[in-house]
Specification:
The protein has strands at about 35, 40-45, 50-55, 60-70, 75-80. The chain is an all-beta fold.
Length: about 110
């Protein structure tokens, strides 16, 4: 997105017509959080609570989680999951706690990598 920024230019190194690219990091994920695709989040309350399905012993298990930032593509999970958990991100809505499932691993690119 185009943005106009006013910068101090006491030494005159910036001249009219110059342009550049800048990355502004508004907020970074907590080092203790896990990021999942937003499609894996079952629901979210205004209180930062939600749920996801994970695969445990060949069955879908509904797990309550604490939700952080959600940009519509990725959701930061502040608690309730570990990096080793297999989160179910694609299902047809008929999944229930305890349903037998067969997991297929899907690599998700991490932001910045």
């Amino acid at each position: 997105m185009r943005t106009e920024v006013d910068l101090p230019n006491a030494d005159g190194k910036l001249t009219e017509g110059m342009y550049g690219r800048v990355t502004i990091i508004l907020r970074t994920a907590s080092p203790d959080s896990v990021t999942i695709p937003s499609s894996g989040l079952l629901g979210q309350t205004g209180k930062g609570e939600g749920a996801v399905y994970v695969v445990r012993d060949g069955k879908a298990r509904k797990v309550d989680v604490q939700v952080g930032n959600d940009n519509g593509v990725e959701t930061e999970i502040l608690g309730g999951l570990t990096p080793e958990d297999q989160v179910i991100t694609s299902y047809n809505g008929s999944l229930e706690d305890g349903s037998p499932v067969r997991a297929e691993m899907k690599r998700v690119a991490q932001a910045g990598h």
